[in-house]
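Forum > Structural Biology > Help requests

Title: Can anyone predict the 3D structure of AAA+ ATPase domain-containing protein?

Hi all, first post here. I have the sequence for AAA+ ATPase domain-containing protein but no way to get a structure on my laptop. I'd be grateful if someone could post the structure tokens.
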Amino acid sequence: MPPKSNSKKNQASWFHCETCGAHIPSKARDNHEEICPTLSQGEIDPNSTAEFVRSGVLYTTSVQQRNFEVDSLKDLPLKYTNMIIFLSEGAMQLAQLHIGQHVVIQALATEEPPLVRIVWPIPEQFLSTIFVNDADFKFHWTSLRGKLLKICALDTSRLIAASSISLRQMNSKEAPLRAEQLQDATHIVKKDIVNHIYCVGSRIRTNFFNKSLTFAFEHWQSSVEETLSNLSLESKPLTFVQVTNVTKLQLVNGAEEHPQEKQPSSSRITKSQIGGLDRHLQLVEESMEYALGFRKLPAGLKVSRGMLLYGATGCGKSMILEAMSSVAEERSHGHIKLIPINSCEVYSKFLGETEKRLAEIFELAYNHYPHPTLLLIEDIHNLCPKQEPTDLVKRVSLSFLSLLDQLNSPRNLKGSKTFVLATSSQIEALHPSIRRAGRLDSEVELGAPSPTARKDIIKCLTSSVQNILGEEDLEHMASITHGYVGADLANLVYAGMLNAHPNPLQLQHLQAALTRIKPSAMREVLIECPNVQWSDIGGQSELRLAMQQAIEWPLLHAEKFQRLGIKPPRGILMFGPPGCSKTMIAKALATESKLNFLSIKGPELFSMWVGESERAVREVFRRARQVAPAIVFFDEIDAIGGERADGDSGSSSVKERVLTQLLTEMDGVEALQNVTIVAATNRPDMIDKALLRPGRIDRILYVGLPKAEARREILKIKLRAMPLADGVDMEKLVQLTDGYSGAEIQAVCHEAALRALEQSFEAEHVQWADFEHALKAVPPRTSPELLKLYEDYLKR
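Reply #1:
Sure, ran it for you. Structure tokens for AAA+ ATPase domain-containing protein below:
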């Protein structure tokens, strides 16, 4: 209900001039004589500071910043509150304005576009002053202070409902938005400007995820009927446009886009630039094309609307996302909508705001129907984690899962052209519910690349640089870069280019870079890179041949094994006294055969938490499959593979569960491909019989105490870097070390050298007396009872 007015008071506050027909406020009455002649002729000086009302138009220079508390406006949304200006009751009556009417404010001395606002009355004592809210004043009215403003009612005949409008971002340098962010902001900006009135050139300010954005009203279109009705040969005044719920909005970047500068596809990664992931690219592309309608779906087949790419960091997940974006744009001829979802930008401290933003993102995808939409989510475990530390994270996870269910709902027709492609480098941290059918139900694991894949990656990386690398060079680099993922190889080539500059890239430059670039996949899966050669091990020639037959031959001559129907052994057990080079043999085998090497100590698999020990065993074999061909070396396997007891104590129960998991992994449903188990123990009699059956550990090798020839080779290896005196007799040392293990022989040599330093720091040679002392200090420790145990085990 409008406020009551006092007509007598209003008449007393305003003075009417009979000469020019203007109403002048009492404060400007004395100076009216200066402008009266001009007004009588119908002319108005744009630079004048006079204030008056004439012919239903208010002219004023008084603008102030002030908020009024009006009971009827308390529940008004903020976007309408900022569109209100306040005028005195008298000024409104004289200008023939009513409460809530749209008025046009034009600065006469400037070329700025006019403003359209809603007028509201305030008490009469303010006369011709305009009062504006804080937010509106700071953005639009600061530059209008002191200028002569013309305020009149909006002519509805000049008002057109727009069918579409275009806004251009003006502050793109201060608050830059990517092209996909401009698309996401469209829905939010539309809500802020619905029912508002603008003209070409109007400035619009809005807030997008804590970024203050400024847009210029650039272009508009009306319906066909309105366009035809407004066709005329006469020039028409400025047209005002109202934004409605059905108005289509387009946001464009601030910089002018020239065809020669707009090259988004050339900078984006394509499939041809990715090496070693052909099979993964094919799987992802096939699923995406079915989901987006690029490929006809076979009858009766239900399409998957979500896919998860997971694997270690640097394996190429983000590159696949970019490549699929390029493929989708090409197949859709540019009509696809790409919406990247950044979990860091989605989260908000305000209650319900994060869930609202997620819903708006999916609504953007649905509004693009019938054209396809591709949702890209990197590190989805941050958006939907397994552990929910706060209520906010829990609410966001549930909201996101609900949105995925709606996307896959058969009743959601608009979701039939939407596909979600997500990545995660921490699959164990992802909420398990998101991986069920109907959500992200397709999964592709990206492991560490094989030697063939590494060759393809290096070939792709070096194709764009000047190099003289041949096929043999590429194969050599691929064979020695165990555990290097795509990102590591890219760093390797970059470091090699720095070494080669300004010359072409050569093999020696890449080899030099190997000392600086470490394999991240080996760091991720705890793979050791042994550097033990066969030449570092004395003797054991028969054992060496047996190990090569079991491991190297099946890999190097696989076709011959297939021709004869021979299956390579799944596992090998080495047993013997301590210090007889069992661990060194396994490391030398990994080094010489160019295989990845996983060293597992038995006790490190045990955990006090129920289920964690079994999970640790599963993780070991998952890692081994990931970097196959590989050797999994279990040192002291009797600690986890010991004979199962009949009791039901807590410790034995955990041990039995770990052993059961180990047996399942070695010979279960999921076969081990190119993964060989090598185990070592001092007590073979304590190992469970199920572990030693064919199909698991099916080859048992005895590593006994070194014989004379082996001891001679060990001494040559240990003494080749030690200066010996002329009196040192090698053959006598071989005889005196009978019964010593390889580790004990090494200890004798080490003790002799220390004794030489004890005698004199200036000693240049190790004397025979030093060795005699060392032999007394380091006696053989392998007991006859243990040797008898090994003999009995071999007989069995």
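The longest strand covers residues 211-222. The chain has 28 helices and 26 strands.
Shout if anything looks off.
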